[in-house]
Design a protein that fits this description.
Layout: E1 3-8, H1 13-16, H2 30-45, E2 52-55, H3 59-72, E3 79-81, H4 98-105, H5 107-115, H6 149-169, E4 174-178, H7 180-191, H8 195-198, E5 209-213, E6 219-224
Parallel strand pairs: 1-4, 2-3, 2-4
Antiparallel strand pairs: 1-5, 5-6
Helix pairs in contact: 2-3, 4-5, 6-7
Length: 228
């Protein structure tokens, strides 16, 4: 039976400051570092092991993976990094405090930007301090100016189909360290969650999610590891 575990990165500096982060690269807090180590320790204690790992090109997810693997004594495992597992791009909201943005634009508008399935935030302005078009990790990539959850799914799922699903089907035990919205994209796909229902799904930081899958990668069960 294929084994898949998902982990959202530990608390980041901008999670703590309640700011829209998206593609901007911020580090883990002390709490986030502890969450990542605890996730690895829990995986080891529950007897879970892996053959292949996937993560994004963002520091908070990469560090979470490395800290978890270190706690498991598995830093040597192969890791594939790809931008398609990055967080959703928050466009012109990047860097803004969520409460201040709600005060300026109204709670309902910010809720639509944050939680609707197919309405993206305003695009990032040209020349923004948070523009990553010149970042060498994204060389050759058309960095988006903004993304909805629907847009995020449209880049995550082809990567799932071409890289992750084949690994699971050949018997690799897979660990993915990524972000709230890129993981919501995978959970929506695997668990058959509707466009409406996925908008209310929250994924906490640093808590491993275990999927039991059949040989066709259909979900038989999904649970947080600390609950079993």
């Amino acid at each position: 039976m294929p084994q898949l575990v998902l982990i959202r990165h530990g608390q980041s500096a901008w999670n703590l400051e309640n700011r829209f982060t998206g593609w901007w690269d911020v580090d883990l807090t002390e709490q986030g570092t502890a969450e990542a180590r605890a996730a690895g320790a829990l995986l080891a204690a529950k007897g879970l092991d892996f053959d292949l790992c996937f993560t994004s090109l963002q520091t908070r997810a990469i560090k979470t993976l490395n800290l978890a693997l270190e706690a498991m004594g598995r830093l040597w495992l192969p890791v594939e990094k790809d931008w398609r597992l990055n967080e959703r791009h928050y466009g012109g909201l990047t860097g803004l405090n969520k409460a201040e943005t709600a005060a300026r634009h109204g709670e309902e508008q910010v809720k639509i930007w944050r939680r609707s399935f197919d309405t993206p935030p305003p695009p990032m302005a040209p020349g923004s301090a948070y523009d990553l078009a010149a970042d060498r990790r994204y060389a050759g990539i058309a960095v988006p100016a903004t993304e909805s959850l629907k847009d995020t799914i449209a880049r995550v799922l082809p990567y799932w189909e071409t890289r992750i699903a084949p690994a699971l089907k050949r018997g690799d035990r897979v660990l993915i360290s990524a972000h709230g919205n890129s993981l919501r994209a995978l959970v929506k796909h695997l668990s058959g969650i509707s466009d409406e229902a996925i908008t209310s799904l929250e994924i906490p930081t640093g808590q491993p999610i275990v999927y039991a899958l059949d040989d066709e990668l259909r979900a038989l069960d999904r649970y947080y590891l600390h609950e079993r």
